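Protocol step 6 of 9: fold each sequence in the batch and record its structure tokens directly after the sequence line. For illustration, a two-sequence batch is reproduced in full.

Sequence one:
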Amino acid sequence: MIKESGIDILQTTTTRVTLSKGLLSIFDKNGSSFIIHTNEDSYCSEGVVKGCAGGSRGACSMIYPL
């Protein structure tokens, strides 16, 4: 949960994406993005269902290769 001030720090490591070329690269033809939802992700087993991602979007950003 983000502090009441609205400022927090997240540090994480993953093997699910890469900056290198390939299937898991975030630098694909149409760019990539990340979204921070306002609620905890519920990981719905039914697949993509409205509301399962964790509520409304609190912040987001697009990533494009230079």
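Sequence two, same batch, same settings:
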Amino acid sequence: MLHIAALMLVAVVSTPPGSEEPIPYDAAYVQAQEQKKPLVVLVGADWCAACKSMKADTIHSMKNEGAFKEVVFTQVDKDAQPEIAQQVMQGNTLPQIVVFCESEQGWKRFSLTGMQSERRVKELLRKAAEVLPKRR
């Protein structure tokens, strides 16, 4: 038992910042619908330098400051999950950050393509929040 606890501690301590695994796309999709929150998807690939940079810098920093608290965030690896990536993406440029939200007129899609700054991602989240139905 002590051995297992020690291994878990090593795993937690040795996990670099920003490498926490996001919830899988399918679970994030369900959670977004149940909680009536926008679904934010970062589509990337392991070989993509801009994707790695965006995850490590932009996304990690935004998570730490709570910028994703009103959305459900997930990531999709274009190579590991090509079917989901194809449904989410427009075009082939990586990375892509896509926001799906339900408005009073139906589902809306907002996206940014390529490496993005925190400012641009926050603008995208604000734009998506503007179409959400007002909660009573």
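Proceed to step 7 once all outputs are recorded. Observation for sequence two: The beta strands are 39-44, 72-77, 96-103, 106-113.
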